[in-house]
Amino acid sequence: MHLSTQWSRMARTISRYIALTFLLAVLGIEIAGVSFGSPALEIAYDYLLAIVFSLFTIVMIAMCGWIVFLWDIDRLFFRLEGRIDAQINAENASDEPDASLVDRAREMLESKVQDVRARAVYVIERSYWDDINASGLLAFPQPNIAAAVRQIDKSRRDLLTPLSDFIATALPVGTSPAVIVARMIFRYVAGEVKVRLYRRLILRFLLQLGSLFALAATAFYFSILGWSRIASSVFTHGHVDPTSVLLYQLDLMLRGALFDFMEHTQRSITPIRINQGATAFVYYTLLFRMFVAVYVTASLFKVIRFVARRWRALLR
User: Out of 42, 114, 222, 229, which could bridge 46 as a Cys pair, Cβ 3.0 to 4.6 Å?
Assistant: First the structure.
């Protein structure tokens, strides 16, 4: 089995099933305040939080780093845009078979275009999206951008067929003129289809990165909650409650996302501090803080670069 396929299956299993199952189970226990009735079980549960979720956090950080650099929106849409332009040029260069049919189609288009335009745009957009996302190529948590590009490049079915079928049922023009009208509408709305695909790709990118980040952040919270219970010395305040741990994590994330702003202005949203003598815990939290900084920067850079190149179209 190909290495990338194995990694994809492992990433999907970890993020969709193992990590999510553990997170939901522990979240239910913490919210319900379940008591195990035995000090030994309580200690075992706290060690489980600290060890298992520390490992999950590290694995999720590695996955997040892999995915954020794997998601090449520009490359993917450059190929998709080229495919749309090539089809527009092909339609413009093609000889239209019958002048009377063309005239009739144009009359139908002029009288009905407002009624069918929105639906036509949706049908074309869906056709192109289903094609590049064939077999879940852009599925969470590991999109296969290279395979999606290859899917765009290779020859395949006519993507205007769904539009022709829709025109045949929406307008009383018959089967043959429906193809002509579909091609005319495609040339007319191709720009709008591109914009909708721009937005759809950005949304898919942000949703996937946001979901992975949420999993990593939740796993990190439960891990430091476990650390604080089995080794209260990791914080200078000794034993801390779950709310204080949450505020500490949010403060850590802000320091990662806002870089030196909070350090320079001496801002903080948490009253607790870590014990610098707890070396392992210090470096573990530093890893998460650096992850937030790199992850946010890389994600914003990709989105800003993509939008900067196409902002005129996106503002339509």
Answer: 229
